[in-house]
Specification:
The protein is an alpha/beta fold and 405 residues long. It has two domains: 157 residues, Rossmann fold (3-Layer(aba) Sandwich), CATH 3.40.50.1100; 216 residues, 3-Layer(aba) Sandwich (Rossmann fold), CATH 3.40.50.1100. Helices cover 43% and strands 17% of the residues. Helix 10 crosses helix 11 and helix 14 crosses helix 15. The longest helix has 15 residues. Bound molecules: pyridoxal-5'-phosphate. The site of pyridoxal-5'-phosphate has 18 residues, from helix 11. This is Tryptophan synthase beta chain. Tetramer of two alpha and two beta chains.
Length: 405
């Protein structure tokens, strides 16, 4: 492979779905026709103005976009450095950024004439977003979920059922997200005719990582325009939390070619990187193949995928999107991590200073944003992606801090 010419960080993936050494299409031969059909349908939708105008209309009237770019004045004062702006994607319908992507995939499924939608979910957020749009468009919805997660995430299981979805508990392996993803892939091969597989992050075989990124880029495009309008210039830094990496790449991608903008992706360090109990695939893992693509993964010495740990169920994934692995290796994005405890502190700080209860996932980004902002001058403009609201996490936080009794 020839060395990439880095005059742009935004051109990937190549025609085989690779971002440098990462990504690709590691799937069973029986899946290939489905993947090629999906790729062709997506390529056609991308250049169809009708698809774009449908997206724009539902994003405005159903999801509630654009989400505000909000100057966090008291958080800024507290840090005493950079001016911190929050991209308020927690205000979207269903409470997080996931709906941006699911809307795109469901509109694509409709174009392809698919009537049965399958998805996998860990914390249940992607399952809820998928069940929501399936209800809206009258599509059958089946959500695979590890049996352990079904038990841990009861409110979201109930939501999905209310929305008319069937939730299938997966009993194999560690009974968590990676097993649910394997089961969904199996379903897809068996039900080729009518089924569309809706993936929740920038992972899976090509074209999913690029397609999901494209749907999430609405976050960064809006943030760019909003910052220019508010401050008359681009931001100096961007920060987002990383599970699989979809909210982060959605914010980052439209800014990747602007030199000088510092970009930080924050992984979950759980009990600390040295404890082994974390979800930091880039800072604590190594390259391997999982769920159809090559990327950094958490694995043991024998190459077995190990379980991720994070207080935040949405960051609890043993891999990361292949584009992030590439951006890490070429050095365009800085990948750092925050522990459970740091996230809990940031969760409380944001609630008290700004009157916004964040999800535990973006609380990881907030924890690092506060540290970095304190070291920057007052004219430094920072955007933190507030990708989800904290309603779903109050029981988890109460369990750690007390206060529900
Ligand atoms: C699912 C989820 C995440 C993690 O997924 P990414 O693909 O990394 O964005 C982060 N935050 C929230 C609120 C989520 O629901």
């Amino acid at each position: 492979m020839s060395a990439p010419t880095l005059n742009s960080f935004r051109t990937g993936p190549d025609e085989t779905g690779h971002f440098g050494l990462f990504g690709g299409r590691f799937v069973a031969e029986t899946l290939m026709p489905l993947i090629l059909e999906l790729e062709a349908a997506y390529e056609a939708a991308k250049v169809d103005p009708g698809f774009a105008s449908d997206m724009a209309s539902y994003l405005a009237h159903y999801v509630g976009r654009p989400s505000p770019l909000y100057f966090a004045e008291r958080l800024t004062e507290h840090c005493g450095g950079a001016k911190i702006y929050l991209k308020r994607d927690e205000l979207n319908h269903t409470g997080a950024h996931k709906v941006n992507n699911v809307l795109g995939q469901i509109l694509l499924a409709r174009r392809m004439g698919k009537t049965r939608i399958i998805a996998e979910t860990g914390a249940g957020q992607h399952g809820v977003a998928t069940a929501t749009l399936c209800a809206r468009f009258g599509l059958q919805c089946i959500v695979y979920m590890g049996a352990v997660d079904v038990e841990r995430q009861k409110p979201n299981v109930f939501r999905m059922k209310m929305l008319g979805a069937e939730v299938v508990p997966v009993q194999s392996g560690s009974k968590t997200l990676k097993d649910a993803m394997n089961e969904a892939l199996r379903d897809w091969v068996t039900n080729v005719e009518n089924t569309f597989y809706c993936i929740g992050t920038v992972a899976g075989p090509h074209p999913y990582p690029a397609m999901v990124r494209d749907f999430q880029c609405v976050i960064g495009r809006e943030a760019r325009e909003q910052m220019l309008e508010r401050e008359g210039r681009l931001p100096n830094s961007l920060i987002a939390a990383i599970g699989g990496g979809s909210n982060a790449i959605g914010l980052f991608h439209p800014f990747l070619d602007d030199p000088g903008i510092e970009i930080y992706g924050v992984e979950a360090a759980g009990h600390g990187l040295s404890s082994g109990l974390h979800a930091a695939s880039l800072t604590g893992g190594r390259p391997g193949v999982l769920h159809g693509n090559r990327t950094y993964l958490l694995m043991n010495d024998d190459g077995q995928i190990t379980d991720a740990h994070s207080i935040s169920a949405g960051l609890d994934y043993p891999g990361i999107g292949p584009e992030h692995s590439w951006l890490h290796d070429v050095g365009r994005v800085n990948y750092i991590s925050a522990t459970d405890e740091e996230a809990l502190n940031a969760f409380q700080m944001m609630s008290r200073l700004e009157g916004i209860i964040p999800a535990l996932e973006p609380a990881h980004a907030i924890a690092k944003a506060v540290e970095i902002a304190a070291k920057k001058p007052k004219d430094h403009l920072m955007i933190v992606n507030l990708c989800g609201r904290g309603d779903k996490d109050i029981f988890t936080v109460a369990e750690h801090l007390g206060g529900m009794e």
